[in-house]
Amino acid sequence: MTGTETNISTRISSGELRGSLANGIERYLGVPYAAAPIGDLRFAVAAPHPGWDGARDATRMGATSPQSPYAGVFGEMLPLVMIEGEEFLNVNVWAPARAKDLPVMVWVHGGANVHGSNSLDGYDGSAFARDGVVFVSINYRLGAEGFSVLDGVPLNLGLTDVVAALRWVKAEITAFGGDPEQVTAFGESAGSILLANLLGYSEVRSLFGRAILQSGAPTAVPAKAAGKITRLVAKQLGIPTTRAAFAAKTPAEIIEAETIVTAGGTPITGGPSYATSIGDATVTVDPMRAVLAGAGKDVDLLLGSNAEEYRLWFVPLGLMDKISAPFFAAVRLRFGITGRILKAYKRSLTDNSRGALFGTLATDLLARLPINRIADSRLALGVTTYVYEFGWKSTKRDLGAAHAMEIGFAFDTLSSPDWFEVMGENSPQALADEMHAAWVRFAKTGNPGWEAWNAKRPVENFDSPTSGIVYAPREETRAVWKK
Question: Rounded to two decimals, what is the model's pTM?
Answer without folding.
Answer: 0.97
